[in-house]
Amino acid sequence: MDWDGQDARALLALERLDRDLFRNRLNQRNANDALFGGQVLAQALMAAIATVGDGRGVHSLHGYFLRAGRAHAPAIYQVDRTRDGGRFSTRRVVAVQEGEPIFHMECGFHADEPGYVHQAGLPEGVARPDELLTLPELADTMPGVPDWVRHRWRGQDGTIEVKPADPLSFLQQPDRPAKRAIWMRLPSGAGAGPAEQAGLLAYLSDYWLAGTAALPHTWPMPSPTLFMASLDHAMWFHRPAKAEEWLLFACESPSAQAGRGLSRALIYAEDGTLVASTAQEALLRIREG
Q1: Which is higher by pLDDT, 215 or 58?
Q2: Which of 25, 65, 147, 175 is the most exposed place for a label (fewest CB within 10 A)?
Q3: Domains along the chain?
C-alpha cells in the first residue's frame, strides 16, 4: 500500500511473519517511481532491532542497494542473527521482493560502557533554524527558482520539514563547493522510543545527502539531466537523537568520478550534540539528450 506521506512512524512499522521474518505495510515512491531507499534502509534496521534484546542500541549499519525496489510490491525482511556476544550483537538483513534481493545490510548493536568522550563541534557560521525559512516559504520568496522547482518545494507538506542553512546553495553558482548544511525534522516522530528514533534518523539520513556530490555540476536537484540512485549507505550512531526536533545535516562530497559520487554528513542536534555520522555513494549518470 502507498504511504500517504503523513506519519513516518507508520511507514517504519512492520508485520512479523515469523521469528526473524518481517513484511512492510507501506511503501514510499521516490522521484524515479521506485521505492525510496531511506524507507528500505529504515525498515531493514527496524527488522534487525526487533531481534535484539533490550539494552543494546544500534551503533552502526552498512548497506548495499542491489536493485531498484518495486513500489507496487511489499518487501520481505529476512534477519540473520549472526552473533550475540557479551556486549555486542550483529545482524544481517536482506530485503526481498518477488523472490529477488533488493538490499542487504550488516548492522551492529552495543551495550554502552564507560570510555573516552569527544566530538567535532558544529560548523561555524551556520544559521539556527529559527532564523531560516522552510522550502515552501522559500518557494514563495526566493528569486531565480524555476517554476517546476517552486511547485516541488511547495509540495513539501510538513512530513519532513527542511530549512537550508544557505538557501543560495540550492542555486547554480560558479565554482560552487560540494558542500551544504540543511536543518531537518520529522514532526510525526514525536513520542517514538529510542529504537524507533534510530529508524527515523536512518530514514532522514537518505534525504538530500547523495545530491551533495552533484552540486558543483548541475542544478536544480533532482535535475532532469541527471539520473541518480543510491549504491550503498553507512551510518554510525553516536548519541540519542529526536527526529521530531531540528537536526543539522552538515554535508560534503570529497569526490565524484567514473559516474559515482561520494557524500558524507555529520548530524547534529540543535544544541550542538553530534548524534550520528553517515556516508553514501551514489550513481550519477548524465542523461543523454
Answers
A1: 58
A2: 175
A3: 1-113 (3.10.129.10), 125-289 (3.10.129.10)
